[in-house]
């Protein structure tokens, strides 16, 4: 591979001039810049970014850690953060944990070792020692829901309660009085150690349903371990086999709702005529399901902008760590309809 010395020799300039051109510095006159760029193109020169970052002690690289690459929500969040970071001149390096607290700690240490400028930790799990490592290394970071705000630590709190309130109210306005909430958790995580985001969404559902008790609304929660679609399917079988009384289902995430739809179909129950179903996250898959899935929306673009703003403003010394709230909404599709006659009541 060509080196910076090879480029400098062909262009007839110093290595410092080549470096200035590579880093888009304005101090190089146009004629010299064109000569350097021509040499770079001829030699197919690629700067050693890692060595350059080590030399200057900082990077324009952000670390991003997510829980699950397979889950569409995390994939869409990753894309939104990459786009928002790129608009600010930063690259993103990705790592995943598969919901493991231990892997989260290892990923954070690896990212710090790579000299990332800052870290976005968009995970469902949390390891309290992560905060200590970040603070001691003075690495700016932003969390989704699980962070503790400090000088270099930001937290973006998702308004789960607001989204679930809209979902429950929508179902109630359609005449539903018996609502089933389906939650799941990875096989690797015992139910008693449920992930933070699962607890937040479940507690939000319980709190919201209590607000509708005066209207005769009743609820039930069913849980099943495993990957989202499989767990959702098994959870709906569990509810049906134990004679749970419901006319509507809210799933804790869209992949879980996918399994619920599949399970209801296999049991011969029509959606939405027999049971209405609402998902959570509003992943891209929702509009392609049969029927298209009504879902609580976490706006990915806004989340990506928030993450990039928090990290870059902290890295560049403009703003300290802060707490932000991301509002949620309900996107209506065809998986829920008005209850004409309550089969349970009759």
Question: What do these coordinates show?
Answer:
The chain has 346 residues and is an alpha/beta fold. The protein has three domains: 4-47, 434 Repressor (Amino-terminal Domain), CATH 1.10.260.40; 59-159 and 299-328, Rossmann fold (3-Layer(aba) Sandwich); 160-297, Response regulator (Rossmann fold, 3-Layer(aba) Sandwich). The chain contains twelve helices and twelve strands. It has helices at 4-11, 15-22, 30-43, 49-56, 72-86, 101-113, 128-137, 160-173, 196-211, 228-241, 254-266, 300-315, and strands spanning 61-66, 91-96, 118-122, 141-144, 153-158, 178-185, 218-225, 248-251, 276-281, 294-297, 323-326, 329-331. The strands form two sheets. A six-stranded parallel β-sheet has the order 2-1-3-4-5-11, sandwiched between helices. Strand 6, helix 9 (196-211) and strand 7 form a beta-alpha-beta unit. Helix 1 crosses helix 3 (30-43). The radius of gyration is 25 Å and the shape is elongated. The N and C termini lie far apart (78 Å). The mean pLDDT is 90.
